[in-house]
Design goal:
6 helices
Length: 148
């Protein structure tokens, strides 16, 4: 089992920032619902904590307070590209230090969080807007998820 101790402080920060970065990409993909979507991100962490014990690494990630990089970006596109690269980097770090099962658990957690955020606010009669769906697809590709 991989734990926080396998990572440098900077590496661990990168791994921790992955899930809320994905949530931020989805939140900013479409107008409206920001409050509900932010609450949904918190609920995704609570859900992951409920699965306590399935993965020590995921337990430590879910136990941390969600924090995303608050660097100022000039546009949504700039923020999204930086965020997607951040996700690719976090997965690469995990692939080098964690088991394949732990990396898959991380991917599933990030994607579940993104889905919860997208579904938190109905837009134009849809539970997930086309822009949010596109963002989730890009997140999935950045994570190297097998079903992307």
């Amino acid at each position: 089992m991989t734990t926080k101790s396998a990572f440098t402080p900077e590496e661990w920060k990168s791994v921790l920032e992955g899930p809320p970065t994905a949530g931020l990409i989805v939140i900013t993909a479409s107008r409206g619902g920001t409050f509900r979507e932010t609450i949904a991100m918190s609920k995704a962490y609570l859900d992951a904590r409920a699965l306590h014990g399935e993965s020590e690494l995921l337990d430590e990630i879910a136990a941390a307070k969600p924090q995303a990089d608050h660097t100022r970006y000039r546009s949504f596109e700039e923020m999204k590209e930086h965020g997607l690269q951040h996700l690719r980097d976090a997965v690469a770090l995990l692939e080098g230090k964690a088991t394949p099962e732990e990396v898959d658990a991380y991917r599933r957690f990030v994607l579940a969080l993104a889905d919860k955020v997208a579904e938190a606010h109905r837009e134009h009669g849809q539970s997930v807007s086309p822009d949010e769906a596109a963002a989730i697809e890009q997140i999935s590709a950045a994570l190297g998820a097998k079903d992307s």
